[in-house]
């Protein structure tokens, strides 16, 4: 998937009403450097993170729609589903253990009660 990230930045600037001069000022760079960013089809990740922060927009989202990120997302979803299944199983086992312990406590209480009755006769 080909993304001209500079064009996406320019569109967001227009939507937000931010001029190239204001953008340059917020980025603490020259107006020429700001124009270079807008004209760039790709940017360094750290620079894109800064631009995203300054403009309050996640420009990485344009790349997340690509095949690589889609495959990663599917793997993460599958791994999460497996982990949820494993945790549910553990929780079920813990609940069964708690039920057994409760029954044992009831039985022991009943036994103590019977022993106390026998002792007082």
DSSP strand count = 0
Which radius of gyration do the C-alpha atoms yield? 31 Å
Task: Characterize the largest beta sheet: strand count, sense, and whether it forms a barrel.
Answer: none
- Identify the CATH architecture of the domain at 5-64: Orthogonal Bundle
Beta-strand residue fraction: under 5%
* CATH secondary-structure class of the domain at 5-64: Mainly Alpha
Q: Calculate the mean pLDDT score and round it.
A: 89
**N-to-C SSE string, H for helix and E for strand:** HHHHHH
Description:
With 121 residues, the chain is mostly helical. The chain has a domain at 5-64: 434 Repressor (Amino-terminal Domain) (Orthogonal Bundle), CATH 1.10.260.40. It has 6 helices and no strands. The chain has helices at 5-16, 20-27, 31-39, 45-55, 61-64, 67-119. Helix 1 crosses helix 3 and helix 2 (20-27) crosses helix 3 (31-39). The radius of gyration is 31 Å and the shape is rod-shaped. The N and C termini lie far apart (88 Å). The model has no long low-confidence stretch (mean pLDDT 89).
